[in-house]
Structures
1.
Amino acid sequence: MSTEPRLLEVRQKVLKQNDLLARSLRKRFREAGVYVISLVSSPGSGKTAFLEKALTLLRSRYAVAALVGDLATENDAARLARSQAPVKQITTGTICHLDAEMVERALEGWNLDELDFLFIENVGNLVCPSSYDLGEDLRLVLMSVTEGEDKPLKYPTIFNTADVAVITKMDIARAVEFDLEAANKSIQSVRPGMRVFEASAKTGEGVEEFLHFLESRRNFANQDFIGEPVAQCRG
Amino acid sequence: MSTEPRLLEVRQKVLKQNDLLARSLRKRFREAGVYVISLVSSPGSGKTAFLEKALTLLRSRYAVAALVGDLATENDAARLARSQAPVKQITTGTICHLDAEMVERALEGWNLDELDFLFIENVGNLVCPSSYDLGEDLRLVLMSVTEGEDKPLKYPTIFNTADVAVITKMDIARAVEFDLEAANKSIQSVRPGMRVFEASAKTGEGVEEFLHFLESRRNFANQDFIGEPVAQCRG
């Protein structure tokens, strides 16, 4: 299509502006000692259920908060607020991803110094969020056992730009004849060496294991911090 | 963001060009007497499984074919080809939707006069495909019982631009504690009066009912055709 190159060019400028803002956000997060995790997945993969469980468990030992993006409704913020953690909804209208500016705006009024962990749940989408850095320390991609084991092959970029994967809804894996080996093979072929957790927000399976991983990552990041942000390991 | 208005402007030009091409495609489809159905949904909602079942059942009494879009892989075309119907894969790279030009290009070499039904499976995405007319007669939005009953509220545009809805994976509705009434309420609040089918590609439940609906729609469209396309009922 003849107009595509122009569209791409404008989009690249938007991305560049986003990257600069994300870099300053990352610096703020690091200086405040808050470890930031973003969540991306297809709509309906169970991001919110997983996050609600994680917030509920973590808040007994850490100061945690969450931002949650959606095109419309505040449903997810209401669900996450049941964890008793501070939560803000970002509604994006027709935009299929969060960007650094939306995150920065949503953080107004929050004292980052008081937080240990901040979670950012992106809009449910396997394409758009991949290009937008939000200043996070760790990007988590979730896929549920109902989505088909080849999702990573079909949406390689979102798996490539993520740091770890969580397979959700493991409690119904048998009912939907989920093939764990095939799913792992798909993930590893797109992002070799990626750490994969298996979890169920309903039974709690795997959630604590994931949280221990986050704690050790946070400790490592804070140890390592000597005024400059650590290099991002994103590919 | 300061660059957003420019980005929107360029995007509107792309859309306008797409609309012109979609209009000419719609005319070609109508003249050839082929009824065209597009499928949109979140990744993993079961578009391909539903379509495979529909193609397999329909091809005993009609000439059917399918185009299937994905960012990468030809996995879905391979699955659909098991129905013995002609199938072509459209790989979009990093683009999160099909457009009319991709459809036109994929149709090269096919004689539309020989077809009764053409299905176009869009890239799994609840945002991007909504703005792109593909020249289809009917746009079908699918949501699975595992996705959460409020998906239509969170992604109103894709439900608004669709003509009918199919709730998929009904065979596991009980296992995932799906609330059919809540889902229907969400759909109707976004798109009042929308016809909703409940189906399972695995058990076959609801698929024949949907196909009868398509047959009657096709008969109606062909009866109505006197050289000009009928008005689109899309909202």
2.
Amino acid sequence: MCRFLAYLGAPIFLDELVYTPAHSLIHQSLHATEAKTETNGDGFGLGWYGDRDEPGVYHEVLPAWSDQNLRSLCGQIRSRLFFAHVRASTGTALSRANCHPFRNVGDLFMHNGQVGGYRHLKREIETELPDALYEHRLGTTDSEALFLMALANGLRTEPVAAMERTLGRVQAMLKRAGITEPLRFTSCYTDGEVLWAYRWASDDKPPTLYYRQEEGGVLVVSEPIDEGLRDWHRVPKGSVLRVDRHGINIEDLRVDIAVAA
Amino acid sequence: MCRFLAYLGAPIFLDELVYTPAHSLIHQSLHATEAKTETNGDGFGLGWYGDRDEPGVYHEVLPAWSDQNLRSLCGQIRSRLFFAHVRASTGTALSRANCHPFRNVGDLFMHNGQVGGYRHLKREIETELPDALYEHRLGTTDSEALFLMALANGLRTEPVAAMERTLGRVQAMLKRAGITEPLRFTSCYTDGEVLWAYRWASDDKPPTLYYRQEEGGVLVVSEPIDEGLRDWHRVPKGSVLRVDRHGINIEDLRVDIAVAA
Amino acid sequence: MCRFLAYLGAPIFLDELVYTPAHSLIHQSLHATEAKTETNGDGFGLGWYGDRDEPGVYHEVLPAWSDQNLRSLCGQIRSRLFFAHVRASTGTALSRANCHPFRNVGDLFMHNGQVGGYRHLKREIETELPDALYEHRLGTTDSEALFLMALANGLRTEPVAAMERTLGRVQAMLKRAGITEPLRFTSCYTDGEVLWAYRWASDDKPPTLYYRQEEGGVLVVSEPIDEGLRDWHRVPKGSVLRVDRHGINIEDLRVDIAVAA
Amino acid sequence: MCRFLAYLGAPIFLDELVYTPAHSLIHQSLHATEAKTETNGDGFGLGWYGDRDEPGVYHEVLPAWSDQNLRSLCGQIRSRLFFAHVRASTGTALSRANCHPFRNVGDLFMHNGQVGGYRHLKREIETELPDALYEHRLGTTDSEALFLMALANGLRTEPVAAMERTLGRVQAMLKRAGITEPLRFTSCYTDGEVLWAYRWASDDKPPTLYYRQEEGGVLVVSEPIDEGLRDWHRVPKGSVLRVDRHGINIEDLRVDIAVAA
């Protein structure tokens, strides 16, 4: 399990959200309160949109709390749309390539959750990827595989339907393989303009996911980063939050396992 | 604060103590129970005596729990005398040179504790070091400085008296500087034959320190690594445990602050 | 391209071969003379047989020349059979999982060379791996894929024939994919008792490979580590050197591309 | 020895100078042509001025050529004033704290050169630092010590005279200690507005230093990064180049060893 944070709104310095709050993401890297693991020290990553088409990414295997580079970067980088993620590995190796967020051309994706029995499904999931996407696989995590699979399923044009198809497909694989461990999926995806935050689990126990509307924008987090004046809202189980410049919208995620047959 | 482990006895593979026990040092790196900080993820280190005169040392900035090299090394290295240490920084930088144990020629030293207001005393402590020792300072920690100061005070020939002088001297510095934070000192030193484990604090609250006599040897730890049949004993406050091939001995540490005047 | 060294014989400290010689592997990491690249600074690795059944492995992304841990380990570890490897990436990521030697249960493998157009063949090669081996793939390199493929082809029982089949198969893939870049393969494999050193290329230009019989054993290297009294011999192109306790033997590698049809 | 680059002018993306040119700093990290060492693989660093008062810094121990974070950061960060540095250690440890540029409040400094016999002078140099500056020493290099000493000598208000005093003082120390190895000093300093580039050596053999006036600004480099249309000029030995928004100026460095008596 992991902890993450996504922001879309008026440009702000990253440290205002990543470091300053009382229960900031950096604080959560040592003391997460709503995660399966309190410590999220298996690397971290940033992804942000600046003045170029492609977002920047920064991945490091050190724990977030001890990286002075991260502190300096968060103090310098100002962005209208960014992702930050602290990792607690569920089994795959510690490497930069396994740190979130993952980038594909102009898109970013990050994930908190797990694919039950992933070790046995890894190959089958990878087999479904088109060559062009498989060539861009850099690491070995389930999270990156899900992202590439969703891209193959049309994530860029149908961000909700493509993710529904992907989850349905993987869930069907799990079923067929006789794996009883759940598929739990809480994630963020953006094409650089719109932000989608998904929350779903095959056992109805997805990791927590919250959002808050600020004056200048919208914040999505694994767990609240402070006890602010403005309220934190939960993204309901089995739904997806859509955020753009004009506001937010929540709709159901309709994962049909039969789709995968 | 940190957690550590020292062993002297019949040669054993390091993983038998570092990995296998239920509350092994690796487990303590994530879930220490008697330390100020539960997480000890700011690097780690090994020091061990093998077939050469000088001990080997291995230092890494990654958390101990995620280093596959450490696991492999502990599975291969067999030693009659070794130190292992997981670090929780009290302020100094994350770097290999700041990881314990510290080596000086054939000796090893590791520490768990703190020098109150070290930032302001660092220079004064360093000033007292003879040139020959100062040239061997590789890092910036209080722990390494205390080791070098103790060597200057005769640690090799008088392991108890030299440490008493060192603690007295530093405590006098603290006093003169008007620093009220305590000096807390729990540490291990070895010359490759005999192991000394010290426990002292200016406020009578030194970090915990335990030992256990095994069939083949003696084990010294920050906190018990299992609930074994054999009993764990506390090293009393203000005393030093001496271990060699023939057995153990405990004597008082007589720290005289006036000595420093 | 990379540089490597393998030794089988009476137990010696690793630093006698890895550090001490005038043109040691550490020297070659900065100043290789017979490699495509002078600098081999994209990580390194050790694999060695000690007192346990499984060999130890140590992988690091830092350049070999700047790793103090490596120096200390090579000064402590004594082995009758070990591999050492400095890496110059041909495109795949810098990560520990991509450092040689690769271990599979009790076996070690390391490689110097390249699979032409590997990026396009990666998937096809992986597809041929049995599930049980694919699950043990930790990195993303062509070298690890070749090792696993050779294991699938019977490397443990037929170390020569299995490698011939593997090279033939990959060469056939290259041909069918219309890739004209060569397959160049210079590698070492051991099961913990016998050492095989292969040298082959589809364009008859395999990387260099030398061996030398010492009093206590046999040394295999990418390029000579010194100008010793004893002579260095080239492993002939298209052949495999077999080394065990009793001596050496050289035989042809018969790579049949048709085998792959 | 090392290689570096400094820029002051209209804001540009860092990769335009750090990656794009034929003989960019990244290329120089593997293939420097005018340095004592061809390979500059002992870490690197960036320092840049953005939208905040303090500059950002990024330090990493990996070689510059293999760091994907560096590539992404240089593609995102746009700056009117920045330093980039690839390191070849002259003896001190590999650590982030030893990577250039060094920051002190709003200032940056980076260095290419050496203090002869630094190991024996380290302590004497450090002893001259005021407490307030000594507390900010993070690493162990001669370069950082020179920077702090220059700050103590008034670098902020008299950037030329303070450096003259510093060099004179250190040269006097070398002389008194009977050290015959030279003091070689090529460096850049900035307060965030003005850039000074110094070139001096006690043996009249300072490392190379070039500058070029561009349309939008001025570039200072250890060695030319391309064969552009605009000419590269050498900073003369024993002089300092001053660059601000309005243009450049060169004046002599008057290092008086007697000043140190």
